[in-house]
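Hi,

I'm pasting everything inline rather than attaching a file, because the server keeps stripping attachments. The sequence lines come first, and each chain or strand is labelled.
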Amino acid sequence: MSEIIATYQLSKRYGDACRVKNVNLSVREGEIYGFLGPNGAGKTTTLKMILGLTRPTAGRVTVFGKGLEQNRRFILSQTGSLIESPSYYGHLTGLENMRVVQRLRDVPDRNVEEALRIVRLEKQKDRKVAQYSLGMKQRLGIAMALMSFPKLLILDEPTNGLDPAGIGEIRELIKALPQRYDMTVVISSHLLSEIEQTATSIGIIHEGMMLFQGSLEALRNEKLPTILVKTQNNALAQELLARKGYLPARDGDFLAFENLGDDQVAMLNRILVECGMDVLRIEERKKNLERIFLDMTGKGGSL
Amino acid sequence: MGLVGLELYKLRRKRLFLMVILFLAVEIGWAFSATSISISRNPGSAGWEALIAMMSSMNGLFLPILTAVCVSRICDMEHKGNTWKLLLTLSVRRGALYAAKYVAASLVVSLACLMQAVAIAGFGLMKGFEQPVPVLLLLRFLLGLVITNTGVIALQQWASMAAKNQAFALALGMVGGFIGVAADLFPQGIRRIFIWSYYTGLSPVTQSYASAHIQFVVRDMGSLLPVMVALTAVGMVVYLAGSVYVSRQET
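And the predicted assembly:
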């Protein structure tokens, strides 16, 4: 699988504020890459730099293995995108909006029809877009991005403003794209659940820095599980262990230890037993994804 | 050329042409009724020169506002629906889009000027003026308008593109209309620096108050030519400055 998007030490400053710091993003062919981060983390800024809408302060971008600066026209001709809020001409109908893009893309009429059908706007295509709901505008934006059936599709928060049924539809659509049309897809979101259900690989960005990049499985295995220990007398055990340099937290009936290797767990058990303290249980608690995000970003499941 | 066509396509349903026609109808109606009154009071002054001079001074008031509205309508749609970034990701260059909008606005305003010239000819024929239709004078009238528009459209486009809030550009147009109508009252040195003063300043016919009666004097083309060249150059400079300014903005 070849690399479709790669950024090298990509950075963007606005005045004193560093919005994106040394991001090395890598998207491989045929992937659905979920770009996850809280609001204001730098997702949109990064995507804008990949599309050449914003100039990086430092670092560089390659798309399809070619430098963005020198090959912008070629790259854009193979890329469909929807960045931030949908773009549309409110005084024109949905179909006329599609025609505007069609003229610039130079694609046949059947592409327009197909794209409208995919996002289920074919019945509303003759209405003025100003009268569309936010969800319909979002669908129109997706249709415009899909129209040329590009090799690379970049969707920034594509399910914004959609109702639950619409979110489900778009999710299924995105999942189908790599096989059906041979596309590579990048979707950004601040919702963990959304990315979890669609992405094959993810990148987590927080305060402009890439915290993790890889598969969901790798993310799950990234952090060591929490070790929970229950003893006869937790308060005394805590005091004993504190002297040996262990600093557990109280978690109900248990003492909770973070980042312990197997050796350390064995050692901990020995200390307690040698002091005559009965150990009733030692448990391992795998962290769920939400917990991992919380640890990474200091925020909850809705990043 | 494709981009200009696309700009005209995007003007669908904007009712821009209807607005232009209604606006012109008011202006032309006003100019013609004023001319009719002066003819009925003073039948000797009936002539093409008076009609063209009247239309030119009306243009000083109306055309800056009409231009501001047309340019604003053409530019505003990109602000309203966030379509700048859409077009940029479709590999349209900012400079090319700016040029297409300029050409589209020029076409619309020039069409309005052409309609004025046709209306002048029609009115004169209807009133039974003695001389034949002064084609050369009308062409010079059009040329003066087109050259003035070059600068005014460039200025309005800069304002409409740079500031999302169109109130600024429209207010600029209204200030232009005020200056355009009052320009003839300013001293020559001051008048020259205002682009809107050239609606009357480049008119082939001017009014002279030398005697007790108003006289209409046809200007010598040679005396206007350097002004026309200079004004075109100013227009181009304003256009380039606006284009560069807008191209440097980031979405």
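Residues 38 and 157 of chain B are 38 Å apart (CA to CA).

If the labels don't parse on your end, tell me and I'll reformat.
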